[in-house]
Amino acid sequence: PGDQEAGELGLAAVPGRQAAFRQGLEAAVHYARAVGCPRIHVMAGRVPLGTDRAAVAGEMETTFIENLRYTADLLSQEDMIGLLEPINNRITDPRYYLNTPHQAAAILEKVGRPNLKLQLDLFHCQIMDGNLSRNLETYFPLIGHIQIAQVPGRHEPDSPGELNFPYIFELLESLGYTGYMGCEYAPKGDTLEGLGWLRSYWESRGLQHGGTSKATK
């Protein structure tokens, strides 16, 4: 994430911070190797204070692409995947550089490395673009990780909000998603009690708690 006390939230697209980015990436790889985690979120970072987003967009993209190619080469030696997460700039972070899956997909195409993927947080995607079904279908080949939270409160999937998560989960199953689902939300109360949405979903799909089929028991 860079120097968070100084207002940084990632460095990969921040001009002039390439050396610090590489140092942070190497530290992240060290930790990921130690805990056996094969995926690293490569945070783009914020538009520098006092600058106009449009004026620095080209330089930031050039920096991002350069750093991502370096990242891909380093992670390929570790058999790891680098992830790019668009973060909405309407509610969460007005200065974050990477905001939509379309922007992320265009950058991934320019970088052209198979071990870099899209980290699609459905909370951010809904706020910026909506159209989740088509976006999931369109960008599914690029997706390396998915995160979930209800909109707009960013709480459990079964809390009041805009998103029909049982439908989304079934869509992901039909698309063949087999990865993890990151619960990127703030529990409204007790964490374990807040997982009732997951138990309800398993039961609706004829599964035991833990995601195993009753038919195999």
UniProtKB/TrEMBL annotation:
The lineage of its organism: Eukaryota, Metazoa, Chordata, Craniata, Vertebrata. Coiled coil: none annotated. Its EC number is 5.3.1.22. This is Putative hydroxypyruvate isomerase. Keywords: Isomerase. The active site is at 85 (proton donor/acceptor), 184 (proton donor/acceptor). It catalyses: 3-hydroxypyruvate = 2-hydroxy-3-oxopropanoate. Catalyzes the reversible isomerization between hydroxypyruvate and 2-hydroxy-3-oxopropanoate (also termed tartronate semialdehyde). Belongs to the hyi family. One of its GO terms (molecular function) is hydroxypyruvate isomerase activity. InterPro entries: HyI-like (IPR026040), Sugar_Epim/Isomerase (IPR050417), Xyl_isomerase-like_sf (IPR036237), Xyl_isomerase-like_TIM-brl (IPR013022). It comes from the Eukaryota. GO terms for biological process: glyoxylate metabolic process. Residues 10-200 form the Xylose isomerase-like TIM barrel domain. The keyword Disulfide bond does not apply. Pfam families: AP_endonuc_2.
